[in-house]
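Suppose a colleague, Dr. K., hands you the sequence of a protein chain of 691 amino acids and asks what its three-dimensional shape might be. Before reaching for any lab equipment, you can write down a predicted structure in token form. Begin with the sequence itself:
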Amino acid sequence: MPDLLLELFCEEIPARMQRRAGEDLKKLVTDALVEAGLVYEGAKAFATPRRLALQVAGVPARSPDTKDERKGPRVGAPEKALEGFLRGAGLASIDQATISSDPKKGDFYVAVINKPGREATGVIAEIVADAVRKFPWPKAMRWGEASRDSGALRWVRPLHSVLCTFGPETEEPEVIDVAIEGVASGNTTRGHRFMAPGAITVRRFADYAASLEKAKVVLDADRRKDIILHDARDHALALGLELVEDEGLLEEVAGLVEWPVVLVGSFDESFLAVPDEVIRATIRANQKCFVMRDPKSGRLANRFVLIANLEASDGGKEIISGNEKVIRARLSDAKFFWDTDLKTKLEDNLPKLDSIVFHEKLGTQAERVARLEALSAAIAPLVGADAAMAKRAARLAKADLVSHMVFEFPEVQGLMGRTYAALQGEDASVANAIEMHYKPQGPSDDVPTDPVAIAVALADKLDLLTGFWAINEKPTGSKDPYALRRAALGVIRIILVNGLRLPLHDLAGKARSGFAEADDLLSFFADRLKGQLRDEGARHDLVDAIFALPGQDDLLMVARRVEALGKFLETEDGASLLAGYKRAVNILRIEEKKDGRAYDGRPHADHLTEQAEIDLAAAIESARADARDAVAAEDFGAAMTALARLRGPVDRFFDDILVNAEDALVRENRLKLLNEIREATRTVADFSKIQ
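The predicted structure, expressed as tokens, is then:
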């Protein structure tokens, strides 16, 4: 089977976009291949700073012939119906259609549409051109003379060439001509920008990857990461040190180089007086370099690891020297700011917050701090924290924002507050809370576990959410300028990780007195919780089924209910009961619509005449009572077990009983019995939400 090799060669692809872009290219091309009938065997995407590449293995040389039968109107149908059928099927006259007979529906026309397959090369040329034009870059540009035309090709950076070959391994591949305005296509690529810039002719993926390697380009980003990580570890080991590993930085630098070369530089030991975190943040942010630490003391060493993109003739001395100069200047600034900040108490910074506007409709940072103090003290008893300590931590939580260090290095906010607080004799829990109240800021970030930190972290996020909700500055679509989704997810993770029982409606009220949009905010939390639980393997419809019940604002209990419901539905009893529920509700819905009334209220015992309905009524009464007691005891597994007892009686009811009996009173009673099934299940979840 032939293979497809595709490369899109351009000026530069930002590191943060590369991995996603590779996957986007793979999806665009492979989805289109499958849609065209070219079902492939496997595909892999690659990205470097100057190219996106894709290998698709086992692509058929030709798409299959297809035969489509399109059903038309009945024989003898009106002329307009026949005309519409002919037009849609592409037939010139009704004589080109065949007639098919149905015992129930009679004779009707059928159009048999035979569609011949196409050569894969022509299909691929169209697919690649379409993928290039529709590529979903977060930001794209036009260039050259054509840029004056608003319909001109847009790409992340100027696109120089397209390499596209197709063919089996045993034959010379065909070069596919891709029609993209102003961009040449063929079978050539280029190596490293400086060490091997010449053109390289390639045939298929095997010699493409090998030729690039010889031309100082490591095509696979994961292999570049592996080279960087292992070489950096080896350099650290040779110096008797440890590499401070950083997955985010590793991913970024692997996207900045095509030929990674690991070098080691140093800085003056006097800078080690500055906190390790500041040194690391400075070196990371400004030079994209890693740091090393002494395994004995655990403190940073005065060495750093930089990743060059070429093999310099002097062994990298000039590159190292240039980086050392920049790092020396930045660390000199950091040390000056550090020494200056130590002369001022955090408490003395607070008056400066009066002049910093948090939001024009929500006041200054000082006003926000006052809200956080009150809210942290109110939340503290609910999470087992000392109220006075939580209030103190909230008071100092934003004080480092006006420090010299944070003004210059915003990424160390919170961290510097903790450091200054500890040096100035604040309680360890207070100092910890100053740093941790910003967390978690992402799915892999740490979650506060100390009660004081929990209280302040929840206060910070709830004040943010209720404040922006109150002024109607809610997230819309992909826009979330105040990171409110992240704040809600932070609240959810804090609650779930720490096993906290905190009704959100009450918390929203504490955060903003008289807050009128708590229900809307609760829906926002529900959507975030769906995503969180879905990432952990739960189904979003089960979250809907729990949240549909009234008063479900205890996120911990919602999560536990979802878990129990998911396990129940995986059992035979659960699946069968759900099927019985759906059947009951469907009948009930049809009859209620037809009769224009709801069949609620308890069924009358005197009108239960058949044993199956008598047994079902008794089973519902027992199961509902036991499920209600189990829910009250927060034993959701037992509640599901109670409902499981309904499976047999429900099945027998539908096997033995005619719901729509001729006797009106009996019929009404049986419909009310179906409603009882619906109401019984609502003790644990709204089964109508379950897909």
